[in-house]
Amino acid sequence: TSLLLMAGIMVTVGLCRRLTRRRLRSHQRLCTFLLEMFSTFQICACTNELCLLGNVEPKPHTSLTLTYGFTVLHGLTLTGSTCNPCGTLQPMWGGGISVKMGGLKIGAQFVAAVLARVFMHFIWSLEMAEPHFGALPQGCSNPMQTTETQAFCIELLFSVVFQLTILRVESINSKYRVHLIALLITMLVYAGGNLTGAIFNPALAFSLHPNCFYDKFLSYSLVYWIAPSLGKFLILYVF
Hints:
Helix content is 74%, strand content 0%. With 239 residues, the chain is mainly α. Helix 4 (85-94) runs parallel beside helix 10 (217-238), helix 5 runs parallel beside helix 8 and helix 6 runs parallel beside helix 10 (217-238). The longest helix is centred in the middle third of the chain and has 28 residues, at 99-126. The termini are far apart. The model has no long low-confidence stretch (mean pLDDT 90).
């Protein structure tokens, strides 16, 4: 049921993106906002569901396989979208897009993060599948299983590794590039998923753990917002 749910989300998002391109091509800002919102919604909604499958046996093989598979599908179906505020900083820094357009994309990403969380809460409340039973969290689910300093360093390091890889594989054929990126993300999740969740995406982190930002805003914004953004700026400054 969870796999069918995620497949349905991807098909629906694909139809919405196609319709947006056809009908709103002349409205550039609105079209850009909706495309980025739909794409980020897909990633956030599917990742929320994947988190429920983390304890499915055999562990961690099932969750890692699903992470790799759906990351490949995201890469193939969401071309042209960054779905990550840190990724939007690169064209803004290089002058590829204006600050206003970059802010519009980042706003769309956080709007999508909230919508995905609300949507998944509604789906979980229906209890259509076994993992949905009791899935509605009470307060912060506490993804940080280490000290704040170590969590900050882990998210910073993962962001640097991920963003550097993105820059290095730009010249590779897209059919192979998505598999390399998916393999890297799966390896990072395996290495640090039990410590911080290995998110390195501010919008996705806000969608997965909104209550944590409400309860401990300073700590979680430092680890899941500032650390990935700082990693991106380090890459941009050096390279």
